[in-house]
Design a protein that fits this description.
The chain has eleven helices and 16 strands. It is an alpha/beta fold.
C-alpha cells in the first residue's frame, strides 16, 4: 500500500503456493488498514517464490538461502519490516473481515505484548482459542469461544500480533528449535518471565488449515524432539502449574507411552528404559490425556485412538519398537540429560 504502514504482515512459506496465494488474496480483500506484506520463502523446492512475486498485491518477497524453519523465517522477515507493529503468519491461513485492527489494538495500547486471533476451521468452528501448560510442559488447547480479550498461558504462533521492539528485545525465535514446534512456547515463556501479557482476541478470527507444514511421521518426530528440548529448558517455570496425576509417569524421560489394557511386561520394559508409562483403561481416559503421549499401545488396530490422539503413534504390542523409532524415542537405561547448556536459566537472547 502507498500509505505509511501501521502494521507489517510477515508470512513464512515453504511450498504449497496455492495456500499462500489464498492468504494473500484474503489479505487484499479484508485488510483496508495501511499495511505492508512481507513473504519469506524458505527455499521452496517448487515455483512458490515466483508465484508470490507475481501476485497482484505485490508483496515484498524475501528468499531465504535455505529452509530456516518458521521461527528463523520470522526472524528474517522482522529485520526487513518497516513498522513497529508486526503480525507474523503461517502461510496456511485465511483472514476474515475486520480481523486486523482488533488484533493489533492490545499491542498498540501496550496492554499486551503478544495477541492472537481465534483460529477456526473453514466451517467456522473454533479449533484454538488459547492453551494452558501443565507441569510436564505439554500444551492443552482450548476450543471455547472467547468474548473480548482473554489472557492465556499460551497460543500457537500461526498468527501473532507483536511489538517489534519487544520481539527484538526478547531475541526473537530461538533457532535452536530448528524445524518443528515449540519455538512459540519458548518465546512466550520469556514473556511470562517478564510478567508480560499474552492474549487472545475474540473479535479477530482467521481460518487455519492445520497440519499442512509436515507429513504426519515428521510431525510426530519433530514434536517429540522439540517438546523434550522445551521441557528440559523450562521445567522449573512449570513446577507450580497444574499437574494431572497419572501413575507411572516420571519427570525426566526419553518419551511418553500410554498403554491401553493390561501389558505388565511392556510396562516394565519401558520404565526400566526411562520411558514414562501410563495405563489407560479405555478410550474415555485417553480423551483426557490432552495429546501428551508420543505412542499409544492398543490391543488391536484402533481408529478411535488415532482420532483421540492424532499426534501419537498408534501401535500394537508387536510393533512397539518400530513405533518408538517413528516417534523419535530411543529407549535407554541411562536417564536423559539436558540438551542445552542450562536448564535453570532462560535461553540466551540471540538477535
Amino acid at each position: 500500500m502507498n500509505q505509511t504502514p501501521t502494521a507489517t504482515l510477515i508470512i513464512v512459506a515453504y511450498g504449497q503456493p496455492a495456500l499462500t496465494e489464498l492468504l494473500l488474496d484474503s489479505i487484499a480483500q479484508n485488510t483496508p488498514e495501511p499495511h505492508e506484506v512481507i513473504v519469506v520463502d524458505n527455499d521452496s523446492p517448487d515455483d512458490s517464490a515466483q508465484r508470490v512475486a507475481n501476485h497482484p498485491s505485490h508483496p515484498h518477497l524475501i528468499q531465504a538461502p535455505t529452509n530456516l524453519g518458521y521461527g528463523g523465517g520470522v526472524n528474517l522477515g522482522v529485520r526487513k519490516s518497516n513498522s513497529e507493529t508486526l503480525v507474523i503468519m503461517n502461510s496456511d491461513l485465511q483472514v476474515t473481515p475486520n480481523w486486523l485492527t482488533p488484533l493489533t489494538d492490545p499491542i498498540n495500547s501496550n496492554s499486551a505484548t503478544i495477541a492472537a486471533p481465534i483460529y477456526t476451521d473453514e466451517q467456522g468452528h473454533v479449533i484454538e482459542s488459547g492453551a494452558s501448560i501443565t507441569a510436564d510442559g505439554h500444551v492443552h488447547t482450548s476450543r471455547k469461544p472467547v468474548y473480548g480479550v482473554k489472557p492465556v498461558d499460551h497460543v500457537s504462533a500461526a498468527c501473532w500480533a507483536i511489538d517489534k521492539q519487544s520481539f527484538e528485545s526478547f531475541g526473537g525465535f530461538d533457532p535452536a528449535y530448528g524445524l518443528g514446534y515449540y519455538e512459540d512456547l519458548d518465546l512466550i515463556n520469556t514473556h511470562r518471565l517478564e510478567k508480560c501479557n499474552v492474549v487472545v482476541v475474540g473479535d479477530s478470527e482467521v481460518i487455519h488449515r492445520t497440519g499442512g507444514s509436515f507429513q504426519p511421521t515428521d510431525a510426530n518426530r519433530l514434536s517429540h524432539r522439540n517438546h523434550t528440548r522445551s521441557a528440559f529448558r523450562w521445567q522449573w517455570l512449570y513446577k507450580d502449574t497444574s499437574r494431572a496425576v497419572w501413575d507411572g509417569e516420571t519427570s525426566f524421560t526419553h518419551g511418553r507411552v500410554a498403554v491401553i489394557g493390561h501389558q505388565p511386561e511392556i510396562i516394565r520394559h519401558l520404565q526400566t528404559h526411562n520411558i514414562s508409562v501410563v495405563i489407560i483403561k479405555d478410550m474415555e481416559q485417553l480423551q483426557h490425556r490432552g495429546n501428551r503421549d508420543d505412542v499409544i499401545v492398543v490391543q488391536s488396530d484402533n481408529s478411535q485412538a488415532s482420532q483421540l490422539a492424532p499426534r501419537a503413534e498408534i501401535t500394537t504390542p508387536d510393533d512397539l519398537p518400530n513405533a518408538l523409532q517413528r516417534a523419535g524415542i530411543h529407549p535407554n537405561t541411562t536417564p536423559p540429560r539436558p540438551r542445552f547448556s542450562s536448564i535453570a536459566a532462560t535461553r540466551s537472547r540471540r538477535w
